[in-house]
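Backbone-to-sequence.
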């Protein structure tokens, strides 16, 4: 894994990047832990053929301090630009907590997102009006395991082609 720095007017972003295809983007939850460290147990189990893009938000992890006021949408737009620089044909996003809000923006900005894996996502819907359907409520009771995450990624990239 290689550290890449992205200089912007908002501040300097840091990401841990491994080339490969398809690209798996990891979006952290709130807190100062680096995204790569937060998802290390998952990343280390993935095929080395998969590309990895684990970015730290401004004021978090290895990223620098914000240089001016910005919105979450501003930051997500910059992250989308960095992901586009990876030149991947297909992308899956794995997001934890507030990473779900960033993922929502990224899906709108990136045409090649093939799937999302959301772990305890924070979204406007979840915060204000969580679904009450039987499928959603049942899914809330299912533990997320490494095997279930790997299975989801496999479905995103391989089963959908058939």
């Amino acid at each position: 894994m290689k550290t890449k720095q992205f200089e912007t007017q908002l501040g300097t972003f840091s990401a841990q990047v491994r080339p490969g295809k398809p690209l798996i983007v990891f979006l952290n939850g709130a807190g100062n832990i680096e995204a790569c460290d937060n998802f290390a147990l998952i990343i280390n189990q993935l095929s080395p053929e998969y590309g990895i893009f684990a970015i730290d938000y401004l004021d978090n992890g290895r990223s620098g301090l914000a240089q001016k006021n910005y919105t979450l949408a501003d930051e997500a737009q910059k992250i989308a630009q960095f992901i586009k620089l990876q030149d991947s044909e297909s992308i899956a996003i794995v997001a934890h907590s507030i990473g779900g809000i960033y993922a929502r923006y990224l899906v709108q900005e990136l045409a090649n997102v093939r799937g999302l894996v959301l772990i305890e996502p924070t979204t406007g819907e979840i915060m204000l009006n969580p679904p009450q359907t039987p499928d959603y409520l049942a899914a809330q009771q299912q533990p997320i395991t490494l095997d279930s995450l790997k299975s989801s990624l496999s479905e995103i990239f391989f089963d959908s082609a058939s």
